[in-house]
Amino acid sequence: MNEEILNQILGKLDSLDTRMDSFETRVTERMDSLEAKVDSLDTKVDRIESKLDKTFEQVAKNTETIHEIAATQQRHERILEVLSKRSIEHEAYLRKEK
After folding, report:
1. What is the mean pLDDT of residues 23-29?
2. How many CA atoms does the CB half-sphere of 9 hold within 13 Å?
3. Which residues form a coiled coil (predicted)?
4. pTM over 0.70
């Protein structure tokens, strides 16, 4: 009888061992799959970061250009004001001389 119980216990242990091996295999496969997905996501994040860096650089350049254009426009506005005043003064002088 002891041998029969021992055989039953060994049979159940074998069954558990088989189930554990199967479970371990599934977990390993799932982990491998997850690692591949994480690697893929890391690559995508790296590409996005690279694109963002380039975009930020371009935004900085555009901002600098916009400031330069605004400064030039202000200078042109001042020049136009001076020229307008001179033109008005010149017209007034010409009228006065007639």
Report:
1. 97
2. 6
3. 31-58
4. no
